[in-house]
Amino acid sequence: MTAGKGEGVRLAGTAATRAKDTPGTRSGRFLAGRGPAYVVILGRFVTNIGFFMVVPFLAVHLTRDEGLSSFRTGVLFAVMEFTRRGLGIPSGWVSDRFGAARILTLGLAVEAGAYVVFTVADGSFAVWGAAVALLGVGGSLNNNGARSVLASSRSGGVAADLSRYYVSINGAALIGPLIGTALMAAGAMKAGFLVAAALHLGFAAVSAVLLRGLHAVNAAPIRPAAMAEALRDRPLMVFCALAVGGWFLVTQYRVALPLTVVHQKLSSDLVGVLTAGNAVVVMVTVWLIGARVEKRSTLGRLDLFTVSGVLLGGGWLLCSVDGISPVVAAVVVTSIGESLFCGVVDAVVAGLATEGRTGLYLGYSTMAWGVGGMLGGFVGGGFDLAADRGALPLFWLVLALVGLGYGAGTHGVRRSLADAVDRRRAAGTAPDATTSPSA
Per DSSP, which regions of 145-237 are E strands? Predict the structure, then answer.
């Protein structure tokens, strides 16, 4: 439903509005320009260092230090994953309803509170359950609010900023575990929880001050029914369904890749090296293509999305050949595919978003992430079964077919999706996700 029907929420912090309100002030120029994007991207990097400093080691801490069973630990991670990814749609709705910057700040504060609760849980399954649920809810609000701030910018550079946002996550994923390893060795995980809390709370304060002008003008508040109305947006549903395939394949870095190293009797230390290599290749590639993606039309971006399916699917197929060289080659190829996928997925969704629905539409994109991750974990978990039955070539073939399938599907609907984005942009119902497009 568009603003013309009285349901829209406009962002007062955009160049089209805020610059008019405070033309001569430094804060007005900051909010109307690239300032909010820099704040969000840098803040994501800093807070994700805190996240990756403790969460990858949480399972060990829960079982070794808190005395929880592996089953209960698995339940806690399921709760965290559901609240972090499964609540993307309501998080998107509140982001549109109350303002993306406000929800970003709220999410950071909730996450900070969760980390503090971690320090006093003392082996209580109920307390840990509440704490990880808080961490997931806060992460969902934080993630959607941050991406909505970037995608709603009228100063240009939306696709490039969304790409840099992903680079910041991978950069933190490189640094955080190094600190976490030292904390685990020193038996100081509770200190790590407090540091993570401080980083999140500190950035919550920074965002509250620097992004204060980016708020929703509730002339016509969005009804909760809007969450279901988006289900009738066929282009959005088609693209999100295709995106599930990409997230399915990206998830194999956490599942199939480590199992492959073990199955081929390679050094277990190689898992960390390959994971770090993935992060480095993704950061470099996304950084290099970010500006180029910005200059491409929607049709050109969808072509990159198609290529990502070929690279992700074909890359994993290389693991069907034994030896360290094919595994390293698979990581390089799939990392480039992941870069192309993540470099355009949110930019396309933002282009499809109708007026005042950017957060909600990105919430559906998050749901695609969650569904793809869940299916990827389930299928990836069948690696050992396939290995025991001598069917690993079939396993890798399935992954390849998923990549080729979503790539071919995207190619088949690319023109209709591009037309939908162009129509909405021409009607003024979608954020301007590109500046000077060229196929």
Answer: 216-217
Tokens (6 digits) for 358: 């950017």
The pair of structure tokens assigned to 296 is 């491409």
Cα–Cα distance, 434 to 160 (Å, whole number): 9
Q: Name the most confidently modeled range: 215-219, 337-341, 386-390.
A: 337-341
Q: pTM for the whole thing?
A: 0.79
- Which conformational region is residue 322 in: left (phi greater than 0), alpha (psi within -120 to 50 degrees), or beta? beta
Measured at the alpha carbon of residue 191, what is the angle toward residues 91 and 62, in degrees to the nearest 5? 70
- What number of other Cβ atoms are within 10 A of residue 4's Cβ? 11
Q: How confident is the model at residue 236 (pLDDT cuts 50, 70, 90)?
A: very high
Q: What is the pLDDT of residues 327-379, one digit of tens each?
A: 999 999 999 999 999 888 988 998 898 777 888 888 898 889 888 888 887 78
- Amino acid identity for residue 236 in this structure: L
Distance of alpha carbon 361 from its chain centroid, rounded?
13
If we measure between CA atoms, which residue out of 175, 434, 160, 171 comes closest to residue 287? 160
Distance CA 437, CA 439 (A): 7
pLDDT digits (tens, 9 = 90+) for 75-106: 888 888 888 888 888 888 888 888 889 999 99
Chain position carrying tokens 């304060």: 205
Distance CA 167, CA 290 (A): 10
Q: What is the DSSP string of 64-102?
A: IIS---HHHHHHHHHHHHHHHHTTHHHHHHHHHHH-HHH
Please list, in sequence order, all residues whose beta carbon lies within 8 angstroms of the beta carbon of residue 388, skipping any fewer than 6 positions away: none
Q: What's 11's DSSP letter?
A: E
Cα–Cα distance measured from residue 215 to residue 102, given in angstroms and rounded to the nearest whole number: 7
Backbone angles phi, psi at 265, to 5 degrees: 60, 35
Confirm if 43 and 203 have CB atoms less than 8 A apart.
yes
All residues at 6 or more sequence positions from 209 whose CB lies less than 8 Å from its CB, including other chains:
none
Instruction: Find the range with the poorest average confidence among 151-155, 205-209, 225-229, 431-435.
Output: 431-435
Q: In terms of Cα–Cα distance, which of 358, 341, 374 is closest to 144? A: 358
Q: What is the pLDDT of residues 279-300, one digit of tens each?
A: 889 888 887 877 777 778 889 8
